[in-house]
Amino acid sequence: MIIHILAGGPEKNIPTLEPYDEKNVSWVGVDHGVFRLVNQGIIPTAAFGDFDSVTKEEWQDIQDNVSKINQFKPEKDETDMELAFNWAVGQNPSIIRIFGATGGRLDHFMANVQLLLRKESLHPSLKIELIDTNNIIHIVSFGEYTVEKLKEKKFISFIPLTTDVENLTLKGFKYPLTNRNIPLGSTLCISNELIQSQGTFSFTNGILMVIRSQD
Fold this sequence. Notes:
18% helix; 215 residues; Rossmann fold; alpha/beta
């Protein structure tokens, strides 16, 4: 199962959704993201939010088109995104892609990154990506991974999170590494590039944020 979540971040940061609207995908809307889905002819399986960012007309469109609406009071312990994310993880998907969760307010962006650091988010059977027009972000625990070359997002950065990363090895990259320890706060692995159709990276301890970007 693949679940795509659309949040209410700035529209300029949201890529065209049509290529992601596949038959095996279930869509989830978060707050104003629900209306954006409905407006594009994509009916979400579920909707979450306090919906304080939609107009009366938009709210009516949501009610007319979405059968499963989970509405909450603005005063709550979880963000709207967290509520939708919890539901999505509970469906046991193999992939979760999140749109409209970057740009705009930095506190919202950092909160969304925190969701990817949860134990269940780092399970090897689940891949979670934050996607916007210029970036694809995902977070991985130690292990070995293969990455394919993407023409439109040629830059790849590896950023340590929460602790130092041990024995990072990069193969097939313009700037290769072999068993290099990367301390927390290092910028050593920013803006690398693949020189082959695919490459591999591996490390034995720590957590990495992997960002694939375009200018």
